[in-house]
Every structure is written in structure tokens, then in C-alpha cells.
Amino acid sequence: MVMSKKSVAVVMGGYSDEYVVSLKSGQLIYDSLDRNLYDVYKVVILKNEWYFLDENGQKHEINKGDFSVQSESGSLTFDVCFNIIHGTPGENGILQAYWDAIGQKYTGCDFYQSALTFNKKDTLAVLSKYGIPSAKSVYLRKGEEMNVDEIIETLGLPVFVKPNQSGSSLGISKVKEKSELITATEIAFKEDDEILIESFLDGMEVSVGVIDYKGETIVLGITEIVPTNEFFDYEAKYEGASEEITPARINDETRIKVENIAKHAYNSLGMSGFSRSEFILMDGTPYMLEMNTNPGFSPASILPQQAKIYGISITNLCGNEVEKALDKFKN
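Above: the chain sequence. Below: its structure as C-alpha cells.
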């Protein structure tokens, strides 16, 4: 008996400026999935159009009623959607909730975990209950009164000002002088209606890839981020203005501590699929900055590099995600 291949849609794009990175991530997954096991398709979701891209580069509109495609050869539906959208709507729970509603299987975490981890403030608040430390911070909504003196007194200088819900380090500023704080909040408010002002943690930044692979939560690697800019901003992430060292130059005791905290955070939130957590190591303690549930997956991105060093091929890493999605949604 010949098993029929499962159809997998690699869903990429998104509504934010991160869509450019998502298209590169999607291409790597599209290229890497095993064609002996899966029929693989490209689906692009942008603000003004959702479409399936056939092998001739022709666009076919996605029917949002059931996420199917009508083409010359009939109706096409997908056994699994491989979600690799960075930012909204694929990393903040919107797409997952929609897929749940129409009964479409998908990779990665559920809508609740996606929505929670996309909100930096709420993630850190939940994780603090599990004993995971983070920077001191002040939270502001657009239009709220802001007492600059009080904030500086509470947090000291420098501080980081960041949108509460935005990826790719967009809208983040490092503020060294009191006089710069108002401008920095205006920049952050362009990206989101809620912002965080965080105390500066003077230490090593590390990026930790955690996945559930073959039934086990594993740390793929710990990457040390050495920015040539002031911090790991958009330019450092995507335009090479940082050095990324895997494995990070830390002793075994610190490495084990980071691995345990990263796994603990992943499991405490009920995560599934790819994740990349950012920490600052200060005096041997890992302070959590945020968790990304759809981290960059282009060939230059941290997670694929970590997998390579760990010894898991991209084909196996991606295949594992598809198989988990097929199992998870079995009735």
C-alpha cells in the first residue's frame, strides 16, 4: 500500500515590516522539506492579499472560508500549514485562532501562547511567577501621563524604550540622557499603543533556541550577541552589524543555568515549535528580555545555525514540526 503524501503549505509574509525576513525564512523551509514525504506549496499572506504561488509564479487567491485554493486542476487544501510568519498575524495568535476556527492544522504553538509571548509585559509577568527574573520596567499606554523624573528615579539611566508588541527590534531606543526620553517614547509609540521602559542590564546578551523535538524539550544552542551598534537592533539583526558567536563564550555552570531557565520558560508557557529567547547574563544570572515564537529562519538566522551545530538537519527540524502538527490535531 502506497502512503499518499501529505500536503504542506509553507505560510509566509505577514502584515508588518518583518514580512521581508519571513519570505526568506519561508523559502528555506520550502526548500528543506522532504519531497519524498510531502507535497510542498508556498502561501503568502499580506495585508491586502492572501495567495498561493504556483510553480510558474502565478498567484491564486486563498479562499478564507476554508483556506483552500481553486486552480485549473481543481480545489487544493492543505494537511498542514507550516507557519513562519514573523510579527502579525502569524506570531500574535490571530492566524492560529482563525485556523482553529476552520479546523486547519498548523505548526508551532497555539493562539494563546502566540498572543501571550508577543506581549512582552505579559510574558515577563507570567514568567516572574515561575521565578524567572527580568529587568525592572515601567509600562505606559499611549496618552497616559508620563513623569520623566519618577521613571528615571525608579529605573536609573540608561534605559531601553521598546514597543510592547513589535518584532525585529523596531522602535527600540537606548536612552542615556533624561532629555532623550520623550523622543524615544514617541518613536516606540509609532509601533505600538503600549510601550515598556526597562532598566539597562549591563551584561552579555545571549539568544537561546529551544524546541520540542521528538517528544523532548531541547536547547539547540546559546548564541552570544556582540553588537557593533549600541545594542542588537534591526540593523544588527538583518544587516550584519553584529557578531554572533555559537556556542556563547560562557563557562559550563552558566551554560547549564541558561539552558535550565530557557527550558523552564518554554515549558512553563506550554510552548510548542520553534522559539528563541533573549537573555542578558549579569553576575551569572540570566535575565529574560523576551521570547519569539516564530524566530527568523533564513539561512543567516540564529536558529538554523544553532540546529546545524547541535547536529539536527534543517530537513529533520522542519519535518518534526509537520509530524507534530499532524499528531496534535488527530481526533
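The longest strand covers residues 216-227.
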